[in-house]
Amino acid sequence: MRKLVITEKANAARRISTILSDGKAKSRSTGGAGVISFSSGGDDYDVVSLRGHILELDYPEEFNDWTGSSPVELVYAPQVKTVRAKGTLDAIRDISKTADEVIIATDFDREGELIGLETVRAAGADMSKVRRAKFSALTRGEIQEAFSNLTEPDARLSDAAEARQIIDLTWGAVLTRSVSLSSGQVGNNFLSVGRVQSPTLKLLVDRHEEIENFKPVPFWKILGKFGLLAFKGEHNGNPFWEKDKADASLNICKNAKKGIVSSYEVSMKEEYKPPPFDTTAMQVEANRIGIPPAAAMSIAEDLYTAGYISYPRTENTEYPKSLSLKGVLEKLKDSAFREEAEEILAQEKILPSRGKRRTTDHPPIYPTSGATPEKLKGDKWKLYELIVRRFLATLAPNAEAEITKCIVNVNEELFTSSGYVLMRTGWKKYYSKYLSTSDTHMPKLNVGDELDIRSIVQEASQTRPPNRYNQGSLIQEMDRLNLGTKSTRHDIIGKLFSRNYVQGNQLIPTPVGIAMTKSLEIHGGGITEHEMTARLEDDMMKICLGDLTLKAVVGDSQKMLHGVAEKIEKDKSEIGNEIRSALREQQHIGVCPACGSTISVKRSKKGSFIGCDGYPNCTRAYPLPRGAKIETTEETCDMCGLPKLKLIRKGSPPQTVCIDPKCGTNTSKNDIGECPACGRRIMMMYSKNGKRFAGCSGWPECDRTYPLKMTGTITSADTKCGHCGSPVISLNGREECINIECPGKAPSPRKKIGLVKKE
Fold first, then answer.
1. How far is the C-alpha of 122 from the C-alpha of 379, rounded, in Å?
2. Bridge partners, 6 (sequence order)
3. Of 98, 365, 396, 410, whose CB neighbour count within 10 A is largest?
4. Strands 26-30 and 80-83
5. Using N-to-C axis directions, what is the helix angle for 155-183 and 550-570, rounded to 10°?
């Protein structure tokens, strides 16, 4: 038989071909499309890889003119699919004509099912020949099992993905055009609005308002220290919300010399191991170790296609019985976790933990192959190690801790102390690097024991506002509210950044992000409320179950959107005024000293910059400072009269600088000394991601650069190094040669850091 296999990505095509052919596959190019061919079991295979969707959904060309029709008309406008990769589709069409079997081997989820089915349909394949290979890991066992037990494609799964595609395009186009046209922000400056994006932004705006409007409430605590170990105890009345009551309690205790143990209890607490990783939990934990959700998903995809982990897009938190946990542990013997794997294999029984979610499409995320830090570098290793350690933790015994509770009586005022000692490490042994708990020892005491009072003090404090979201906690909240899917949430957060609706690691909404949300709350017909989006998510899930059809869900969505669009159209004047006012606040930098026009942040195809609104009569333009959060000020430069900005960079104190990087006030601050290579000036500079370094002002003719420490204040010492001729800098008042490879420096026990390249 001749078989055509269609995969979603090139890496998957290569790995599947290698497994099925025992490494004997050969590649060729057909009409610009890559084809991998081999023979196996008497069958001839051709494997063709896609790059995601081969068809692109959009509106017909006549709807490209935003002013040519009302956004409301887009709600029921037709949508068309166009071929994105004609060469690939032609190759699939040609091969499928002579193939006895066409096998869809795309990712086994809604999106993968749609990609596969739309491709074979577009190629005109005989649907009676089309089969489906379902697998959750690109391992030899899983691939061989999947291709030995082919199934029928799932049209309902594909319909659910297509419904999402249609709904997202419709809502995004209608809402984005409505708001952008209302506020006059078109072209490159359009304002993005979406059915998931907008309620997600509202979460951040609501939290921001809660913090901004928070009024702290004072409270007081009475704290004591007792016995030889001076262990701490909290007054049972803590916190005191009235100062006079706190003072009264302190007065009762302050002259006491002894406290009496009135209660002393020791108990054992079992600490249960964590559930297996689903996508959300993996992203949250990755964010805690410095890998943002979008990066974590990208790395996880690479690890999956390379055969190191199982499919990373899953909502399952229970290992299926068909998964050989011992088999996975055996594979981990060939890794940096050999010792840990052998320990767990030596257990009398391996009883895995399980979470609350159970699905049948994919197992939780687990390692499928062993690896070492030499094989996987940087964040790939960090994420792989996290996934391995989580897997090990789910198979280890529960931990057990000794909990001590002691109550000390001081003149009838009671103080409670607690102790915690981990007695059996269990799963924590394998997951300890991601935990922050520590032991708190208590002395062995008996009821009636007298204890010396070391101190009793009163501490004043006040309530604090809630924490801002970070990317991990926001994804958790989106998951809880059913906003988006495991596959799209990190992309939604990325859009909030790219459209400048939020800034910084704490996801602080910008004035435009706030104005957009507040305006849509009033005029948006419910678009910012998560219930509307969650309802559509539930409906799309019902398509998978066969309870609803694609046509019914899309129709219901259109009715819902039509009401929203009409409301926005009716109130477009108010929306426009509110958003334009916020845009002026957000983009305003100051006044141009040359022509008196406003200087503001502009956006172009090459990125954002600072420019004069008097263009083309006034052509003043300056780059935005790199790698810094900027805040406007009311100050102007004493030397050139241009506005000044406040720059905030991690590890450095805030700076107020002129917007012109070539202004003498800036060059004097950043001048470090003479370049030993060409005689020009070595300047302190910043890369795109905010890392500072020193480089020659004569670049690119002179490429002399030096790395700089990210923290501390650096100034020029106005002298040269006697050993290498490089500038000498003052770092927090201590002078040193800027050249880390200077022959005059003592050899460092650490690995040398290479010179940075200028970006």
1. 39
2. 48, 104
3. 365
4. unpaired
5. 10
Q: Tell me if residue 307 falls in helix, strand or coil.
A: coil
Strand 714-720 and strand 655-658: the pairing is unpaired
Question: For residue 124, what are the CA distances in angstroms to 58, 114, 128, 623, 727?
Answer: 21, 15, 12, 52, 69
Q: Which fold has domain 279-395?
A: Topoisomerase I; domain 4 (1.10.290)
pTM for this prediction: 0.80
> Which strand (E) or helix (H) includes residue 89?
helix 86-98
Residue 754: the pLDDT is 39
The reported pLDDT for the residue numbered 749 is: 47
What is the token pair recorded at 692? 């500072």
Q: Which CATH number fits domain 2-50+85-153: 3.40.50.140, 3.20.19.10, 3.40.50.300, 3.40.190.10?
A: 3.40.50.140
Q: Residue 114's closest CA among 216, 8, 255? A: 8
Ramachandran angles phi, psi of 588, nearest 5°: -70, 125
**CATH assignment of 218-268+400-462?**
2.70.20.10
Which residues does the annotation mark as catalytic? 311
Distance between CA atoms of 367 and 304, rounded to whole angstroms? 9
Nearest-angstrom CA–CA distance, 451 and 457: 17
Domain ranges of the chain: 2-50+85-153, 163-212+468-578, 218-268+400-462, 279-395, 646-759
Q: Which residues of the chain have pLDDT under 50?
A: 748-759
Laid out side by side, the sheet with 598-604 consists of: 588-591, 598-604, 607-612, 621-623
Superfamily of domain 163-212+468-578: Topoisomerase I, domain 2 (1.10.460.10)
Handedness of CA 116, 105, 312, 355 (dihedral sign): positive
